[in-house]
Amino acid sequence: MSTVTADPSSKPRLSPRKRAQRMRWAQYAVLGIVTILAISMANWSQIQSVFFRGDMIHETLTQGLPNAFKNTIVYTLGAFVFGLVLGTMLALMRLSSVGPYRWIATTYIEFFRGLPAIVVFIAFGLLPLAFNGLVIPFDPYGTVWIALGLVGAAYMAETIRAGIQAVPKGQVEAARSLGMPTGTATRKIVLPQAFRIITPPLTNELILLVKDSSLVYILGLSAQGFELTKYGRAIANTNANLTPLVIAGFCYLLITLPLSMVVRRMEARQKKER
Asked: N or C end of the chain, less CB within 10 A?
């Protein structure tokens, strides 16, 4: 009876876990080398002069930054509320049994999801030329709320529709069997549960609106109506230095990072509840 002997020169094969660990350490090493090279090759004096100049930081913080920060938040919240109301209506129309409602909602959603937000802002900036005497209430806030909200509504509508469809149909049928009208069942049973499900993605939409509010610079605004990007661009162009834009970017992070943390916590809580 023959026996099979192992080749002493052959090396033992690594387990998948060991291979993954070595690959991870190799990636860390490559990242460390690239970081060290970038730090050693960078012209730090030039970077400090162009992006982090001390006098420009002081000027940016003390001139009109609080007002621009406030305007960014007001623009975003107004557009979010407008988009949320319109998006809810579009979602219900998209799910309606009435054909024309579905066609109108589908056309609107596909149109504004495929259209860049900057084009919508340009169109609203030209509206007074197309319609003499047209006055949008609370201008420039009203103009920004409508322009940004129209785009946001198209995305929110699809999110809300998915949330409505995630609610078990048996709950609506039970409400109908008790004599509750369809509209009342939708308002009191379906929508509250749907919004509870879609709160994290809706918060992501709010973050996107914060960043899209930077497109307000397309509109001709006075200094009192400047948001962060417009304010940073104005000072940067005046002084031929990019430090104001860097400060404006950090201000956006002050708004979006806490919202991102809230989204992660809500998603984690929903996973635990499942």
From this structure: N
